[in-house]
């Protein structure tokens, strides 16, 4: 058994949504140990949380700059090797950039940065550093999403015609109608979230799923946002027409005010020989549609699945695996890359996916603000 990789965590404190997912994922395949962290901008809170989860407090630092300075003083054999950036969006860029400049591997939450320009700078920094960089588009870690990618790669749908990705949530509905409440949410504050709320937070996952499963690139788009109130600067709903190629078109729909929706991410890809559909709230079912035979349902863990899908399944068929497992699969891919072991390029989203995401987010805003015009992606 290779030794564990020394992991640091930024953000992801006890009050956070995503922290527990990363901690569980890191431990899932016994590949990482958490050696240091800044869980919160308030040192006392970071220390209290470390005690609560039984972590030694000697490397729980008061802030990010101190973490880097102190870790660099340690011998390489003790120093943190990879750091997970789980803070609100505006901190991803300065933190990830400095980590790369000091030779750390980085696992970064999405959206990778708040602007496309920052994303490109980060890409250059990663190229210079030569370290591993993953962006946690969690849904790519699901076995049946991997299966979808591999079936499309193998040509099982034939020529692709149409893509349709939907990410519907409703959680902003009770907040958006109250001026005071909406100013208390960082996802609705452009200084913290970036130029988009809905597309930046969830539309970007749907975009990533289209490119991940089809292997195709979205070339241009036309977006229509809804802000619900004139004084709200951040989109809470949007519909995006996308063109991937001259004859491959589709739609990305995202909403944070789709009342009653929870985490309704769904993707359908249609081709000449059939269609594939996957829904995040029923992740163990991959539907294969055909116009010449009955509907088929693929499930994880069966030998008919691709090696990439089977690699992401831990238990025999019939044992449901979910979002923790998906993130665990991403962490496992990153561990393989850090250790210099062989891995499949679909095991974790990279900085290229992060850059594409920011290109998409900025294009949706430019399209809407330009009067719902077609905008090209790079
Ligand atoms: N991959 C996914 O599916 C997914 C899901 C949810 C959130 N996210 C992303 O994860 C990130 C965090 O989202 P969240 O919902 O957990 O946010 P959150 O507001 O619930 O938690 C943010 C955490 O960051 C900490 N923090 C804030 N400033 C800090 C600083 N200067 N130094 C250290 N810690 C600091 C806070 O104390 C808190 O613990 C966002 O970028 C979000 O887009 C991704």
UniProtKB/TrEMBL annotation:
Domain annotation Gfo/Idh/MocA-like oxidoreductase N-terminal: ranges: 6-137
Coiled coil, from the record: none
InterPro entries: Gfo/Idh/MocA-like_OxRdtase_N (IPR000683), Gfo/Idh/MocA_oxidoreduct (IPR051317), GFO_IDH_MocA-like_dom (IPR055170), NAD(P)-bd_dom_sf (IPR036291)
Domain GFO/IDH/MocA-like oxidoreductase: 145-277
PANTHER family according to UniProt: CONSERVED EXPRESSED OXIDOREDUCTASE (EUROFUNG) (PTHR43708), OXIDOREDUCTASE (PTHR43708:SF3)
Protein name as it appears in the record: Gfo/Idh/MocA family oxidoreductase
């Amino acid at each position: 058994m290779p030794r564990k990789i020394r992991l640091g965590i930024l953000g992801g404190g006890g009050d956070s949504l995503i922290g527990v997912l990363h901690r569980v994922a890191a431990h899932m395949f016994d590949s990482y140990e958490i050696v240091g962290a800044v869980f919160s901008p308030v040192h006392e809170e970071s220390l209290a949380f470390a005690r609560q989860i039984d972590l030694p407090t000697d490397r729980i630092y008061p802030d990010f700059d101190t973490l880097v300075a102190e870790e660099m003083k340690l011998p390489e054999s003790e120093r943190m090797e990879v750091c997970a950036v789980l803070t609100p969006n505006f901190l991803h860029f300065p933190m990830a950039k400095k980590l790369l400049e000091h030779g750390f591997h980085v696992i970064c939450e999405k959206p990778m940065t708040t602007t496309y320009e920052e994303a490109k700078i980060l890409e250059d920094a990663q190229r210079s550093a030569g370290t591993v960089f993953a962006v946690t588009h969690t849904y790519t870690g699901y076995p049946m999403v991997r299966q979808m990618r591999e079936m499309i790669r193998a040509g099982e749908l034939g020529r692709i015609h149409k893509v349709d990705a939907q990410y519907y949530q409703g959680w902003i509905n009770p907040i958006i109608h109250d001026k005071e409440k909406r100013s208390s949410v960082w996802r609705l504050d452009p200084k913290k979230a970036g130029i988009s709320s809905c597309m930046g937070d969830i539309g970007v996952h749907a975009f990533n799923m289209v490119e991940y499963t089809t292997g195709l690139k979205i070339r241009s788009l036309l977006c229509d946002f809804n802000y619900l109130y004139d004084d709200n600067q951040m989109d809470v709903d949007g519909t995006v027409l996308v063109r991937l190629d001259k004859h491959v078109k589709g739609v990305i729909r995202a909403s944070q005010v789709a009342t009653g929706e929870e985490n309704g991410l769904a993707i359908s890809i249609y081709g000449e020989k059939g269609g594939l559909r996957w829904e995040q709230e029923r992740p163990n079912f991959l539907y294969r549609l055909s116009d010449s035979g009955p509907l088929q349902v693929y499930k994880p863990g069966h030998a008919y699945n691709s090696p990439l899908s089977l690699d992401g399944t831990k238990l025999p068929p019939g044992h449901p695996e979910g979002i923790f497992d998906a993130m665990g699969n991403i962490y496992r891919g990153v561990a393989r890359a850090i250790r210099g072991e062989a891995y499949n390029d679909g095991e974790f989203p990279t900085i290229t996916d992060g850059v594409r995401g920011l290109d998409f987010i900025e294009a949706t805003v430019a399209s809407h603000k330009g009067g719902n015009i077609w905008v090209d992606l790079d």
